[in-house]
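Reopening this one. Same input as before:
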Amino acid sequence: VMRKIMALFFAFLILSSLSASVSLSVDLASLDFLWKEDLRIDAECSFDYDNIRITIPIRYGLSEDKYLNLLESGILVGVFPFENLGLMVEASLFKLGYFWGLASPTDRLVLLSEGSIGWNGNIGMLHICPRLTFRSLLSISGKGAEAMKRISQFDGLRLSLAMGVNLGEINN
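Same output, byte for byte:
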């Protein structure tokens, strides 16, 4: 696990040096922990260069009974098919999830896949990205698939609104 975290850290460093624009965002739906008991985290760091977007998400979810946890991360690649309109199509290049807790399946490491369509834009320093995401569980079957269903934040179809800060343009 530590090797994977270090690999993501180095990918972050490399991408930040190549990037023209860096954004840090949080999905507003993940703020529901303020009035609900279940905790979840849904944040991302995005790097935009010309019409290509690289996103590194960090997502954490907890089942309602508190016996199952899931942490996922990876690399998503997005393109902007129409210049300056903000429309974005995105797919996972690499995505892993890790289960732990009393109700975790025996195969704790899972390979995930997702694709999304949305709009990406900045208003000053405010970064806004509403999107519709489709998830596929590539390496999950049996108890792993059942475990995934227990964590409501990781549904197969998800509508999200990521908001955050645009850290600005990096001159190359």
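So the earlier flakiness isn't reproducible anymore. For the record, The longest helix spans residues 2-18.
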